[in-house]
Amino acid sequence: MGGKIRLGVVGVGNCASSLIQGLTYYRDAAPGAAIPGLMSPDLGGYRVGDIEVAAAFDVSAAKVGRDVAEAIHAAPNNTQIFATVAPLGVTVSRGPTLDGIGRYLADVVEESPARPCDVARVLRESRCDVLLCYLPVGAQRATEFYMAQALRAGCGVVNCLPVFIASRPEWRAKFEARGLPIIGDDVKSQVGATIVHRVLASLFAERGVRLERTYQLNVGGNADFRNMLERERLVSKKISKTQAVASQCAEPLPADNLHVGPSDYVPWLADRKFAFIRLEGSGFGGAPISAELKLEVWDSPNSAGVVIDALRCAKLAMDRGEAGALIGPSSYFMKSPPQQFSDAEARELVARFVAGAERPPARKKA
């Protein structure tokens, strides 16, 4: 164990910006220290300072050909700037567009005229260990293309978007056959709408309250929310978020009584996200009970701390020769893992994984 984790990044958007700023911000984080925003200063012998960007891919004319440290601030990126990133000496390569730009993003993203690179070759020559997929929601063909390139190049994968890869048997089999790990799908933020909604649904169940109806509505002003105005691209996102909450309910809810998903795009919110969550149920003697809250976060930094841990787990698996979907890390870090567990169970599974314990048995109830 130890050494460096060489990272390839697909999509140099807000999420990549927050993550890469975080690599500078937490570079000297001491093992064992309680540091705001960082879940694990040390994970399996790897510290944040051990992660380095080795390659990056995008399609935007404002980003391709520039140093990654510059590209993370190019429009339409609009997240917080909390660290000054020195030039990394890594130039953003032109990847293929495929279905990576939706109808509404096409209005704000000018495509680079450069010829798409040989992605697998770039990954091999830059000696990438792990490929991090940050493509826009709905980019099915583009995601599958990059998964194939990771397999060709011999890279582990962390899939942060709701295109189902780790959760599909046919893709898991490909990674197992190639001897490579994958963590996915659809990153679960540190304290985001999904994790809060899951905790409240679990609380109702654990305290004997019957959950009867619930919703989660989200609004934001970043490129992700703009992209999701194209409702056709939302199908997998809605499925992912709904499954993440439904898996924590004691009893299945009728489809009309469970609504989870993005709601609208509000430009002036920038990278802020507002989530509105309501749960209604019945308690002792059938007496009604309800809970309602509003959560406000900066969307991209909220996921970066989770991704930093996921990357280190993927590298640990590569060090050990573990292949296929990593069940524990996927269940804790992602909304749509191959197997759903409660968040307490998932956290314990990650601890067992980091300690080198064997994989968990199949869960009886999905």
Q: Enumerate the spans where pLDDT stays under 50 for 5 or more consecutive residues.
A: 360-366
Mean pLDDT: 93
Query: How would you spell out the order of helices and strands?
Result: EHEEEHEHEHEHEHEHHEEEHEHH
What distance separates the N and C termini? 33 Å
Total helical elements? 11
The 3D shape can be described as globular
Q: Any idea what the radius of gyration is? A: 20 Å
Q: What structural class do the secondary elements suggest?
A: alpha/beta
Strand content: 15-25%
Helix content: 25-40%
Please give the number of β-strands. Answer: 13
Q: Strands across the major sheet, in which order?
A: 5-4-1-6-7-8-13
Query: Sheet bearing the most strands, described?
Result: 7 strands, parallel
From the structure above, extract its key features.
disordered C terminus; 366 residues; 4-stranded mixed sheet; globular; alpha/beta; 20% strand; single chain
Structure characterization notes:
Helices cover 33% and strands 20% of the residues. It has 366 residues and is α/β, with parallel strands linked by helices. Strands 5-4-1-6-7-8-13 form a seven-stranded parallel sheet, with helices on both faces. It has a four-stranded mixed sheet with strand order 10-9-11-12. A two-stranded antiparallel ribbon has the order 2-3. Strand 4 (51-58), helix 2 (68-71) and strand 5 (92-94) form a beta-alpha-beta unit. Helix 1 (14-25) packs across helix 9 and helix 3 (119-125) packs across helix 4 (140-153). The protein starts with a strand and ends in an 11-residue tail after the last helix. The model is unreliable at 360-366 (pLDDT under 50).
